[in-house]
Design goal:
heterodimer, A: about 110 residues, mainly beta, 5-stranded antiparallel β-sheet, 11 strands, globular, B: about 110 residues, 7-stranded mixed β-sheet, 4-stranded antiparallel β-sheet
């Protein structure tokens, strides 16, 4: 069975500091991996995705993630946090029923303080 | 380009009642998925519709059912509502083939009292 674990339900950083949100996955097949962001009272917006090819994936708003098969990880990073990055972040993996049937982690709430 | 739209935005129902949630897919998308997001949790896959037929289902009981229409819009129906059905229901659309990602609507917040 496929699953996603996001370490840390809450992460707090200072504006300008490095953002690191952790995601580990379990999958019996080569995974497709995603990071989504959710702002209050909104749906999910795709930040970036890994399917095949280059393991370092760049997304929107300066975020990037690296697929590490040996560590079964797909951590999300951003070199310098901005106040507007405060939101809930979800890591997801394709489920056993197909590419767009995603299994999500429980989410990490990112707070950015001045 | 029109994104995924959902209606209503908020809904309050009583335990035992039935509810219908609606979703219009993004222009050019022919596949619709529904997810349930309970408070403080990640979304959980309910089911997906393609060409008006269910194309995969998550671990949800039969009282959760859906429809997809020829214009690719979709409905989620929930019968015999339970308190635990209180959640944000998210609709997402995509086009089949390739690596097209899901595009989510803003959801319908359902409260069951």
């Amino acid at each position: 069975a496929q699953s996603v674990t996001q370490l840390g339900s809450h992460v707090s950083v200072s504006e300008g500091a490095l953002v690191l949100l952790r995601c580990n996955y379990s999958s019996s097949v080569p995974p497709y991996l995603f990071w989504y962001v959710q702002y209050p009272n909104q749906g999910l917006q795709l930040l970036l995705k890994y399917t095949t090819g280059a393991t370092l994936v760049k997304g929107i708003n300066g975020f990037e993630a690296e697929f590490k098969k040996s560590e079964t990880s797909f951590h999300l990073t951003k070199p310098s946090a901005h106040m507007s990055d405060a939101a809930e972040y979800f890591c997801a993996v394709t489920g056993p029923r197909g590419y767009n049937k995603l299994i999500f982690g429980a989410g990490t709430r990112l707070a950015v303080h001045p | 380009e029109t994104g995924v739209t959902q209606s209503p935005t908020h809904l309050i129902k009583t335990r035992g009642q039935q509810v219908t949630l609606r979703c219009s897919s993004q222009s050019g998308h022919n596949t619709v998925s529904w997810y349930q997001q309970a408070l403080g949790q990640g979304p959980q896959f309910i089911f997906q519709y393609y060409r008006e037929e269910e194309n995969g289902r998550g671990n949800f009981p039969p009282r959760f059912s859906g429809l997809q229409f020829p214009n690719y819009s979709s409905e989620l129906n929930v019968n015999a509502l339970e308190l635990d059905d209180s959640a944000l229901y998210l609709c997402a659309s995509t086009s089949t083939g390739g690596n097209s990602p899901l595009h989510f609507g803003n959801g319908t917040r359902l409260t069951v009292t």
